[in-house]
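INPUT
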Amino acid sequence: MSNGALSPGDGAARQTPPRHVAIIMDGNGRWASARGLPRGEGHRRGVEALRRVVRAAHELGISYLTIFSFSSENWSRPASEIGDLFGLLRRFIRNDLATLHRDGVRVRVIGEREGLEPDIRDLLREAEDLTRGNSALTLVVAFNYGSRQEIARAAQRLAIEVAEGRRSSDTVTAETLSQYLDAPDIPDPDLIIRTSGEQRLSNFLMWQAAYSELVFVPIHWPDFDRAALEGAISEYARRERRFGGLAAKTGS
Ligand code: FPP
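OUTPUT
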């Protein structure tokens, strides 16, 4: 689609699409190095890929798209690269927020806001506030996000409630802990895609990924497009999800 509100397309959407797709957008640096370009150019082209994929996700009937934009561990990168990534987030929100809103996209943010620069915190809040009433697609931006940190924050909140006598320790279950994660109302990802050929979760949605299907795509994130997303969804559609149970019986 070139303009106007997004509406689900056809093609791969006719198969039951995964309701929630999460993506580890990996390989920006290698994409740039292979072309003799600075790593920042790989990230810039990564944002272009992100725009394509947000649009494709809704056209394919996906309800939730989570993207790993900046991990808790990315602070170990050189200051110049961290500056590039924060600059891209600022530009993405300033330039794209109106379009996302017009297209009915709701923006949610997961990750630790403490310690982020005030203008970044304000932009993240503005994106969430402006788009709160939208329902075409929920774009979950994982920013300054790490799964262990998210689980530890949840455990800490429960521990405080127990220590203050507001909760009994036997109510601390997987179900209650999951209610203290950053976005408890969002369903677990059905499909997690990682680009660039690496095959690991790298501290991304480890709690929520318990029964996710993982698809590893051997192309770098700046080259990812609608066709690559459809390919990953087709791979997902061939998987049999059992959630710890038995295979569904076929035939009579
Ligand atoms: C991994 O590539 C990618 C990242 C660390 C950041 C992903 C960020 C973007 C796509 C752009 C910013 C997003 C927003 C929403 C503004 P890498 O640098 O680890 O690549 P490499 O493994 O090849 O070095």
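end of record. The longest strand covers residues 137-145.
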